[in-house]
C-alpha cells in the first residue's frame, strides 16, 4: 500500500511539474533595448564611451529559467584622431570600434522581478581591421514594470586587444 501511494504521489508531482513547465514554455519574449557603456582595459586608451542596441528572443524553459538567442550592435566611440601607442603616436581618422554579437542567452529568475544571466557567443567585427572575437556578457537585471527591464552588465570581447566595458541598459519586452 505504501509503495502504491508513493508512486501515485510521484506521478502527481511529475504531472504538475510538466503542466507548470508547459505554461511557462508556451510564453516567449522578444526583447529590444539600448545600453550605454564605459570601456576599460585596452579599449579605454582609445574610447571612453560606448552605445549599443540589444535584441533577443527568449523561451521559458521552466518557472526559473529562460533560454534564447541575442544579438545587437555595439559602437565604441574613438576619443580623437590621435592615438598614443607608448613611444609611437599615430595621427589619422580612426573608425569607431563596432561589433555585432551573435549569442546564446540564459536567464535565471530567483524572483519574478530579479534575474541573473549571461549571453555567450561571437562578436563579429564590423569596422576595418576588426576581426571580432569570443563574446561573453554576464548581467543582473530587474523588472521596473511588466514590460520593462533595467540591467547592469559586463561585456568582454576577446579580440587582438581587450574590449571590456561595464554597461547600463534598458530592455522592453514584447
TrEMBL record:
<protein>
    <recommendedName>
        <fullName>Outer membrane protein beta-barrel domain-containing protein</fullName>
    </recommendedName>
</protein>
<feature type="signal peptide">
    <location>
        <begin position="1"/>
        <end position="22"/>
    </location>
</feature>
<keyword id="KW-0732">Signal</keyword>
Amino acid at each position: 500500500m505504501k509503495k502504491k501511494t508513493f508512486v501515485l504521489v510521484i506521478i502527481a508531482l511529475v504531472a504538475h511539474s510538466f503542466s507548470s513547465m508547459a505554461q511557462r514554455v508556451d510564453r516567449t519574449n522578444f526583447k529590444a533595448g539600448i545600453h550605454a557603456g564605459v570601456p576599460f582595459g585596452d579599449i579605454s586608451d582609445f574610447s571612453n564611451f560606448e552605445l549599443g542596441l540589444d535584441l533577443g528572443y527568449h523561451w521559458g524553459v521552466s518557472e526559473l529559467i529562460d533560454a534564447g538567442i541575442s544579438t545587437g550592435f555595439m559602437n565604441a566611440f574613438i576619443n580623437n584622431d590621435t592615438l598614443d601607442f607608448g613611444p609611437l603616436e599615430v595621427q589619422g581618422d580612426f573608425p569607431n570600434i563596432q561589433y555585432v554579437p551573435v549569442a546564446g542567452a540564459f536567464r535565471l529568475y530567483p524572483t519574478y522581478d530579479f534575474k541573473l544571466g549571461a549571453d555567450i557567443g561571437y562578436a563579429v567585427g564590423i569596422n576595418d581591421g576588426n576581426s571580432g572575437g569570443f563574446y561573453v556578457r554576464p548581467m543582473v537585471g530587474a523588472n521596473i514594470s511588466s514590460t520593462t527591464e533595467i540591467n547592469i552588465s559586463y561585456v568582454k570581447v576577446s579580440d587582438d586587444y581587450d574590449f571590456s566595458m561595464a554597461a547600463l541598459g534598458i530592455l522592453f519586452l514584447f
